[in-house]
Amino acid sequence: MNDSQQSKPPAIGLEKDDWIAWLTGRGEPAFRAGQVLDWLFRKRVDSFNAMTNLSAGLRAALAEEFRLNPLESATQQGSTDTTRKFLFRLHDGRYIETVLIPASPALYGENSDRRTLCVSSQVGCAYDCKFCASGLAGFTRNLDAGEIVGQILEAERIGGERINNLVFMGMGEPLANFRNLTKAIRIINADWGVGIGARHLTISTSGLAPQIEKLAEEPMQIRLAISLHGATDEVREKIMPVNRKYPIDRLFEALQIWRAKKSQKITFEYILIDGVNDSRQQAEILARRARSVHAKVNLIPYNTVEGLPWSRPPVRVQEAFLDVLKSGGVQATLRREKGHDIAAACGQLRLKQETEEGIVEAPLKD
Ligand code: SAH
Asked: pLDDT tens, 110-134?
């Protein structure tokens, strides 16, 4: 592939209106947008040439201007709990990770057919949370809308099953890639696109208050998860530098705005780190905070990251923390983890790079 081919936009990153504009600009009728989208998202063809109800000239023009598939599957790892991690190679040679978490009867009941995909929004991350693997090698670039949508199509192609639940909890800070994120979720949600209902889409953020307020303006009933990890500025600031920019009170102003627009409960993600944020006092303050915005809390025992000093508290401390929340009237769960053994659990996703020996972990930052 030469450079000009590599920089072609992915066809699955265009919305219906973009297709109508592109097609009518070439003298084609607007209804062809529906035909193109049908080939891309229903029939999932592997070449523009296979779009047989379009003229040969139009198929050639499409191939000239767009890339069909923005991702190449590099490796795949299974986990003993059936979580699967995919490593995808982007057109510029960068890598991202996507994790498929199949239904768990233990979590969701015997008949659950919930298949969750955890997608990345950026290559690397700039937010430098002290406990997280994703930011260790720094920030490289935003994913475009097609690269976000492509993670779902590829995971469905490889796995042979439809994804029906999506969480933006892979690599990157989704709200720092706002324009591409919102474009991607419109494509993911649309009937002419991937067709996953808005209530099955969760955006997770480290707490970018102004962008939360902006996202609240989007008409879809998407869900919001906040990576809180500390109930006071003092604790949160130690582990999440973003808290200096948007302290907890500022974050909660944004959450009140969100609540006024959306009907679904906000989720607080709270990883329990031994001796850092697991005190009874933090639990009590967290309970008050959660009540103030009617949030539910997901407690996640910290997953060890090689090269980082943190660890999880003993189970009895985890359970005591949970009890404080519950007796404070807060809906809370202690997460049973998935994918720990393949480093695909939350916060273990890390940029990979290719060397002559194959795929290796990116070097740790000093
Ligand atoms: N930047 C966004 C999206 C990433 S979500 C955000 O922060 O929400 C990834 C989730 O995994 C976040 O809740 C993050 O705080 C959590 N996480 C990061 N490192 C972790 C670790 N080592 N163990 C458990 N959870 C971790």
From this structure: 556 889 999 999 999 999 999 998 8
Atom of ligand 1 nearest to the CA of 269: 13
At 226, give phi and psi (nearest 5°): -110, 125
CA distance 120 to 349: 9
Q: Is the pLDDT of residue 366 over 80?
A: no
At 159 the pLDDT is: 87
Indicate which residue of 28, 97, 154, 269 is catalytic: 97
The phi-psi region of residue 44 (left if phi > 0; otherwise alpha if psi is between -120 and 50; otherwise beta) is left
Domain 3-65 -> CATH class = mainly alpha
Measured by CA distance, the residue closest to atom 15 of ligand 1 is 227
Residue nearest to atom 13 of ligand 1 (CA): 227
The lowest-confidence range among 71-80, 158-167, 274-283 is 71-80
Domain residue ranges of the chain, discontinuous segments joined by +:
3-65, 71-361
pLDDT digits (tens, 9 = 90+) for 278-303: 999 999 999 999 999 999 999 999 99
User: Which ligand 1 atom lies nearest to the CA of residue 229?
Assistant: 15
Active site annotation includes 118: no
According to CATH, the topology of domain 71-361 is TIM Barrel (3.20.20)
Cα–Cα separations (whole angstroms), residue 130 to 6, 53, 175, 237, 239: 35, 53, 19, 10, 5
pTM across the whole model: 0.92
Residues in contact with ligand 1 (CB, 6 Å cut-off)? 129, 131-132, 169, 173-174, 204-206, 227, 229, 269, 271, 300, 302-303, 305, 346-347
